[in-house]
Amino acid sequence: MRALPLSLLSLYLLLTPAALAVGTPAGTVITNTATFDSADGAVDSNPASLTVQAVCGLTLGQDGQDRSVQAGQGAYFSHLLTNTGNARQTFTLTPAPNGVNVYQDLDANGQPGTGEGPVESVTLGQDASTALLLGGMVSTFGARTWTLSASCANPQDGQSTVSDTLSSQGTSLVITKTLTTPAQIQAGEAASYTVTVKNPNPVAVSGVTLDDPLPQNETFVSASPAPTTQDGQALHWEFGTLQPNETRTVSLNTATVTGTPDDTLVTNTATAKSSDLPGSVQASAALRVFTTTLLLTKAVLERNADAGDLLHYTVTLSNPSGAELSGVTIIDTPAAGLRYLAGSARLDGQGIPDPAQSGGVLTFAANVLHARQTITLTYSLQVGPDTAEILPNTATGRAIAGNSSTAPAVVNSNMARVSIPRVARLFGGLGEILGRVYVDRSGSGHYVDGIDTPVAGARILLAGGREVLTDQQGRYHFADLQPGTYTLRLDPKSAPWAARPWPGDRGLTGSRGAEVFSLTNIDFPLIPNTGGVK
Q1: What is the pLDDT of residues 307-340, one digit of tens each?
Q2: Looking at the domain covering 174-289, what would its CATH class be?
Q3: Do the beta carbons of residue 422 and residue 383 sit within 8 Å?
C-alpha cells in the first residue's frame, strides 16, 4: 500500500481538533501524531499541533416573570447569567426601557444593596454565574414590559434576552365632603359644603376629576374654584395632575328649593376619579329641611292663689306639619316656690309618668306627635310659702324629625307664658282647709262644674279629732288651723264610690296630706261607677 503524503496528513490533523475546541479552555495546545499501519510496517506522521481559540457563550435565565407592585415602590426581577464559553468574558448588559437599570445582586437578597449600583457589563470566568437584578422605582401606573439583553463583545458570537411583565397599582383617591352650615335648614335657605380630593400616593396621578350632581331640592349658587363645566344640576371640575399627597379643595354654595316639604332629607354626593386609578370614590353630606314650627298654648284654671293652693295648668302642643315627629317633650319652667304635684300629669286624659325635674324645670315626655296632631297636657302645681307676688310659668315644646342618625332636625315651638297674682288671705295668722267631694265624671282630677257631681253628707276626718260633713254642693271647711302639715281622710262609708288614688296616699285611698299656711284647697274626686248605676 502506498503511504499518504505527510503534507495531507498534517492538514487533516490541523482541522480535526478545531471542531472539538468548544468547552476546552482557550489557549489549550492540542498535539496529534498519526500512525499508518500496513503489511510493510507502521509509519508515523510528523506531529501536528493547534491552540484552542476563545469561544463566547452565555445563558440568561428566568424569562417571562410577572409581578404586581404599588406605584412608588421598587420592583426587581432576578435573572441568572452564566458564561457557557471557554474563556473569561465580559458581557454587555442592555436594559429597556429608559429608567430601568441592571444591578449585580452580590448578596443574593433580591434588592440592590450597598455597593450594588447599576452596571452596564459584568465579567465572568468560564462556567461562572452571577445573579442580576432588572428593575428600579415604579413611578407610573399600569402594565409594562421590561427587557434585559446580555451579549458577547460581538453579539453575533452570543446574545440572550429575557422579558418581564410588571403591573403597578395605586391607592384610591381620598375624598371628603362636609357641611359648613347647619344640617337643619328651612326651605329656601342657603347651604355650604367643603369638598376635598387628595392623592395619597407617593407618585403623581393624572386625569383627576370631580363631579357633583346636585339633588333636585338644591340649586347651585356659587363655587370656588368655579366648575370647569356645568350642565343643569351637574357640576364638573377637571383638576389634571395631583402631585404626591396634594389636596384640592372646592367650596360649594347652594340653596334649598322654596316649598321643599318638611322632613325632606337632602343628600349631596360628590365623586372623584383619576385616569391612572381604577374605579372612583364618593363622599356625601346630608341636611334636613324643616320649616314649620310647633304651636304651643298654655292656660291656668285659677285667677289667683295663695300659699298651699293648687294651680291647674293646661298645655296644648300642635304639629301643623305633614311629618311624624318623635322624642316629643314639653319643657315647663314654673316660678320659684311652685312645686309639682306628683301623679297629676295627664296626656289627653291618660296618666303619664311624672316629669324629669332639674333646676326647677319640668320636662314632660310625650313621645310621638303625628302629622297635624294636637296633644293636651294637664298637671298641677302647689303654691309654696316662699313664692313672689306674681307667679309666672313658661312652657316650650320640642320634637325630633327624621332618623336620629341621619341629619335629624330639632323642631321647636313658640314659648307660652301665663302668670297669676298671689293674693294673701288673712285669717289672723291661722290657716284654713276647704275643698269638695265629687264624682269625677270628667276624669280631669279637678272639679268641672256641670260635668262632675257633688256628693253631700260625705264625712271628712282631720288628724287630731276634728271632722265635718259636706254640704249640698259637696263642700267642706276646716278653720282656725295653726300653720303646719295636716292629714285628712274621707270616710269611705260616707261616700257612694271609692276615692280616686292620689300620689302620696301610700295605698290608702281617700287620704290626703298638705302643708297649710293660709287657705288651702283639698278636693276628694271619686271614681264614677262605670256600670252606670247611680
Answers
A1: 888 899 999 999 999 999 999 999 999 999 899 9
A2: mainly beta
A3: yes
